[in-house]
Design a protein that fits this description.
Helices cover 31% and strands 40% of the residues. A hairpin with a 2-residue loop joins strand 10 and strand 11. Helix 1 runs parallel beside helix 4.
């Protein structure tokens, strides 16, 4: 009995030591990552660009994923906005109609537009809460919602996301005139599944040094980076097959730049 107790005690000690080693390694890795970000910020500063390491936002597991057109999702979205609908055309662009309520058109590339009759969807509480309710009904994941006032009403813009990471070029605009939602338009993704050769996201330092090279070449003109965020960029063919790939959005004092993680190519600027 005593031998058994001693054996258990030894095993417990080994487990505690093993756990301590893991914790120490994890802390060391975290310190190393922080130091790497500080070093990159120093290099950027020497190149004339100011960046606070705290402004760099990484995400969880980001890797290339395949996407595919999903007609069931189109119907779900059309019904969420218009109620019962009938498909009146199917092809590269599919059309759904609801008599007296509106029309929805979906492209195989993920772009869509839903035109809604006046008074069909009214603001409940406020525009943002109304949009949040619709997005839940449409089963669309988003990372950010922001509101823009217009002379006749307001626009709520939603940035689509996958597993918490923004898809920078998939945004949806909800346009209100007065208290009535008149249109929903933008781009979204469906049919997501892992890509066989899907690569992960690079360390932020890699993309930032590439961005510095773009500044030095004169492709980009900026002196301050206000935020860096890891996420995705979506591309799809007219056949409805596409992918979301790792990308970075770099916000600067002169605009926003979406950069391809694998190549460093600037995919868009705004």
């Amino acid at each position: 009995m005593r031998t058994k107790t001693v054996t258990i005690a030894i095993l417990l000690c080994i487990n505690v030591i093993f756990l301590a080693v893991i914790i120490i390694d994890t802390v060391a890795d975290a310190r190393s990552e922080r130091q790497a970000l500080i070093d990159v910020c120093t290099v950027l500063s020497n190149g004339g660009i100011i960046l606070d390491p705290g402004s760099i936002r990484t995400a969880g597991a980001i890797s290339t994923m395949r996407t595919a057109r999903d007609l069931e999702s189109e119907v779900l979205m059309a019904r969420a906005a218009l109620g019962d609908v009938d498909m009146t055309d199917q092809g590269v662009i599919s059309r759904y109609e609801s008599e007296g309520r509106g029309v929805a058109e979906f492209s195989s590339t993920g772009n869509f537009e839903i035109r809604i009759g006046a008074g069909v969807i009214m603001i409940e509480g406020n525009a943002v809460k109304t949009v949040e309710k619709l997005l839940r009904s449409m089963r669309i994941e988003t990372s950010v919602l922001y509101e823009i006032s217009t002379p006749g009403g307001e626009i709520v813009i939603a940035v689509c996301a996958y597993n918490g990471a923004s898809i920078f070029n998939c945004t949806i605009e909800f346009s209100f005139i007065g208290d009535s939602l008149e249109a929903i338009a933008g781009k979204y993704i469906t049919g997501v599944e892992p890509a066989p050769d899907g690569g992960g996201v690079s360390p932020p330092g890699t993309v930032l040094l590439g961005f510095l090279a773009s500044v030095k070449r004169g492709d980009v003109d900026c002196s301050v980076i206000t935020e860096v965020e890891a996420g995705y960029h979506h591309a799809a063919s007219s056949f409805g097959i596409g992918a979301i790939s790792p990308a970075w959005q770099i916000n600067t004092d002169t605009g926003k730049y979406v950069v391809d993680d694998a190549t460093g190519e600037i995919l868009s600027r705004s």
